[in-house]
Design brief:
With 272 residues, this protein is α+β, with helices and mostly antiparallel strands. 26% of the residues lie in helices and 29% in strands. The relative contact order is 0.08.
Length: 272
């Protein structure tokens, strides 16, 4: 029987479905997988489940990480990786290319080396690739990435003290907007709501759907509502607590639970 499990692999921490012929894989165990890129080292994220049913659609787990594989990884980390980074950086400077080298990734089988870089515009790196291929006699790939991917590669912990979401579980780095911060009543100081990449924190996005859903259950500001405290105009609300602040006709301010609202006369004023 074939079993399916999710594996996190590569320096960009891709997540994909892989099949295996054994169910005896532990969570966080290191394995060697045959990905679309070649031989990669990965980490088991889910318990293997069968029957797989994804032959041809999933890549294969080749083996558990062996002592020989560990030695290769150590050599890549301590020798080959730093040497290739230094050589490529020297060539970039020599050719005066407008790019910043971020990191270098050697595949375990040695059939490809990936150089990650950040640049404001497209870069003509054909001569650089020729020099790298001549030096290392293997397939060379230049991968331009954004600042969010750069943080995923180089940073580890966020201001909250936890591992970066993009490193631990986020697969896609979708856009994050200031509107999401406003929804969540977060400070609008960009320095306080920006992540290690300098962009707005990803958690603002994946928490936003809950805020949008809860917000839709509350009356708009400016609406007239009928409550046990009287008839009043909505002047504020607390999304998570589902509380509404109203001002009654006698100018008194009351905070009421959204369940206490008996009737709403809506306003065309947009939600804030």
């Amino acid at each position: 029987m074939l079993y399916k499990t999710k594996i996190r692999y590569g320096q960009l921490r891709h997540i994909g479905d892989f099949y295996t012929e054994t169910s005896e894989l532990n969570l966080q165990e290191k394995v060697v997988v045959g990905s679309e890129r070649g031989e990669d080292v990965g980490e088991v994220l889910t318990n293997p489940k069968g029957p797989c049913g994804c032959e041809g659609a999933c890549s294969k787990i080749l083996r558990k990480l062996t002592p020989e594989d560990s030695e290769k990884l150590k050599e890549i980390k301590e020798e080959k990786g730093p040497e290739a980074f230094a050589f490529c950086k020297e060539k970039i400077k020599e050719k005066n290319l407008p790019m910043k080298l971020t990191t270098v990734e050697h595949l375990l089988d040695g059939k490809k080396i990936i150089f990650y870089f950040v640049a404001k515009e497209r870069v003509d790196f054909r001569e650089l690739v020729r020099d790298l291929a001549k030096k290392y006699h293997t397939r060379i790939e230049m991968r331009q990435i954004g600042v969010r991917d750069e943080a995923r590669l180089l940073a580890q912990y966020q201001h909250c003290g936890r591992e970066l979401c993009c490193r631990s579980f986020l697969k896609r780095l979708d856009p994050v907007t200031m509107k999401m911060a406003k929804n969540q009543r977060a400070t609008l100081d960009p320095y306080k709501i920006s992540g290690r990449c300098g962009r707005l924190m990803c958690c603002l996005r994946y928490e936003n759907d809950v805020y949008e859903e809860l917000k839709s259950k509350l009356p708009r500001k400016g609406s007239t509502v009928y409550t046990s405290k009287g008839i009043g105009k909505v002047i504020d609300f607390e999304i998570l607590r589902q509380k509404v602040t109203i001002q009654t006709e006698d100018q008194c301010i009351h905070t009421v639970d959204s369940k206490d609202i008996q009737k709403i006369e809506r306003t065309s004023q947009p939600l804030e």
